[in-house]
Write a structure and sequence with these properties.
Elements: H1 3-15, H2 18-25, H3 32-40, E1 44-46, E2 61-63, E3 66-68, E4 72-74, H4 87-97, E5 102-104, H5 112-118, E6 123-127, H6 133-146, E7 151-154, H7 175-178, H8 192-195, H9 205-214, E8 218-223, H10 226-234, E9 239-242, H11 256-267, E10 273-276, H12 282-290, E11 295-298, H13 300-332, E12 345-347
Parallel strand pairs: 4-11, 5-6, 6-7, 7-8, 8-9, 9-10, 10-11
Antiparallel strand pairs: 1-12, 2-3
Helix pairs in contact: 1-13, 4-5, 4-13, 10-11, 12-13
The structure holds ligand FNR.
Ligand FNR binds at residues 24, 37, 75-78, 105, 107, 126, 154, 221, 243, 245-246, 248, 276-279, 298-300.
Length: 352
């Protein structure tokens, strides 16, 4: 982990309410998957090229029409207001100032329109499909009207994972923040939080439906298998995110770092493949890019930055990751992410 990230993590731990810290940190079950995510990127070794002119390294990345300063983007995460009074508005400002995209969660704690107004650059909207599907469709339409560039449909959450250390799925978030983007669409008289829970009956046709409703590309998040990625692409997905949801859903799921190559082999020639989970340095990202990822989402470190230093620290953390990536790309003999030869990365020999 980069020193700046380790430092922000400690500062966030002191700045956050203890229940908020535990909520951000938690994984599901025994936290096996949550615990393995970072180390899994270190299960690869690099075979650098030499005698290449790497005096200029260009990190600019294009993903579904978004022009980005680097391949780092902010993963969708709930309730940024636990970390900072401006919540997601501060996050998008900080990320935008670093030239990075933010994926804004359905469970954002500030109104979508306010978040959109605060965003200096592109942002995407993460959709959970709720039991009340009209609620999700209204949200997707609002996101499209507010300027979202894509919908990220999270599919690893038919039910919210059980996180033992937070004793349940909800912490002390008041209803007006929990439902800030949802309340106005609930049918009067509906039992608020029930209608706004995830629908466990989703099938691939939901991909086409959301694309039609929002008029935006749909990226499916939470895929760990090539065959499943292919099923999503055949149903109309414009991209996929290889993710274990930060180890917060199915515990003992394969780490994203180990799942990525299979997904790239299945769909990488058709759609962009993004990845997240445990990315804490430029070298972690280099491995992901060499394995065929187009972009890398960063989760918890952004919340640490937000809690420790607001929008400015969010900019700083994303710029530090980009600087580290620029450095290691040059050492590996590549002038851009696209210039990475897949043979640069190999699984580490296991002698244990
Ligand atoms: C998440 N994640 C998540 N994903 C999603 O699709 N919708 C959401 O609302 C949330 N909420 C959320 C809250 C918190 C506190 C965390 C830590 C994570 C998962 C997130 O998008 C991403 O997959 C992981 O966080 C990436 O792993 P790292 O970088 O946190 O290790």
């Amino acid at each position: 982990m980069l020193a700046l990230l380790a430092d922000l993590r400690e500062r966030a731990r002191s700045a956050l309410r203890p229940d908020a810290w535990e909520y951000y940190e938690a994984g599901a079950g025994d936290e096996v998957t949550a615990g393995e995510a970072e180390a899994a990127w270190r299960d690869f070794r690099l075979r650098p090229r030499v005698l290449r002119d790497v005096s200029r390294v260009d990190l600019r990345t294009r993903a579904l029409g978004a022009d980005l300063a680097s391949p780092f983007a902010v993963a969708p995460m709930a309730f940024h207001a636990l970390a900072h009074p401006d919540g997601e508005c501060a996050t998008v400002r900080g990320a935008g100032d670093a030239g990075c995209l933010t994926v804004v969660s359905t469970r954002a704690s500030r109104p979508l329109e306010d978040v959109a107004a605060a965003a200096p650059g592109p942002w995407w909207f993460q959709a959970y499909v709720m039991r009340d599907r009209g609620l999700t469709e209204a949200l997707v339409q609002r996101a499209a009207a507010a300027g979202a560039g894509a919908v990220v449909l999270t599919v690893d959450t038919p039910h919210v994972g059980r996180k033992q250390r937070v004793g349940g799925v909800r912490i002390g978030i008041p209803d007006d923040e929990y439902l800030v983007n949802l309340a106005r669409h609930l049918v009067p008289g509906a039992v608020g939080r029930e209608a706004a829970e995830q629908d466990p009956s989703l099938t691939p046709d939901v991909i086409g439906r959301l694309a039609e409703v929002g008029g935006l590309p749909v990226v499916v998040k939470g895929v760990l298998r090539g065959d499943e990625a292919l099923r999503c692409v055949q149903a109309g997905a414009a991209g996929v995110v290889v993710s274990t949801h930060g180890g917060r859903q199915l515990d003992r799921a394969l780490p994203s770092a180990h799942a990525l190559a299979d997904v790239v082999a299945a769909v990488g020639d058709r759609v962009p493949v993004l990845v997240d989970g445990g990315v804490r340095s430029g070298t972690d990202a280099l491995v992901a890019l060499a394995l065929g990822a187009t972009a890398v989402l960063v989760g918890r470190p952004v919340l640490w930055a937000l809690a420790a230093g607001g929008a400015v620290a969010v900019t700083e953390v994303l710029e530090e990751l980009a600087a580290d990536l620029r450095h290691v790309l040059a050492l590996a003999g590549a002038t851009s992410p696209a210039d990475l030869d897949p043979a640069v990365v190999v699984p580490r020999r296991v002698d244990r």
